[in-house]
Specification:
The protein is mostly helical and about 55 residues long. The protein has three helices and no strands.
Length: about 55
C-alpha cells in the first residue's frame, strides 16, 4: 500500500472518530502531487495548477 493510500485511509478513520488532522506540510503536498502524476491520476498541467493554487485539491 502506498503512503498516499495509507494516509487517505487513516484520515478517513480519523474523520469517523471526529478527529481532524493538521494540514499537510507544503513539502508533503508537493510529494503527493508528484506521486499522483506518476500513478497517472492527474496530468502535469493539473499538478502545476494545484501547486500554483497552494496545493489545494
Amino acid at each position: 500500500v502506498s503512503y498516499p493510500t495509507a494516509r487517505a485511509r487513516f484520515d478517513a478513520l480519523l474523520g469517523k472518530l471526529g478527529i481532524e488532522r493538521a494540514p499537510a506540510s507544503p513539502a508533503q503536498s508537493r510529494i503527493e502531487l508528484m506521486e499522483q502524476v506518476a500513478r497517472g491520476e492527474i496530468d502535469v498541467d493539473e499538478a502545476m495548477k494545484r501547486l500554483a493554487d497552494g496545493g489545494e485539491r
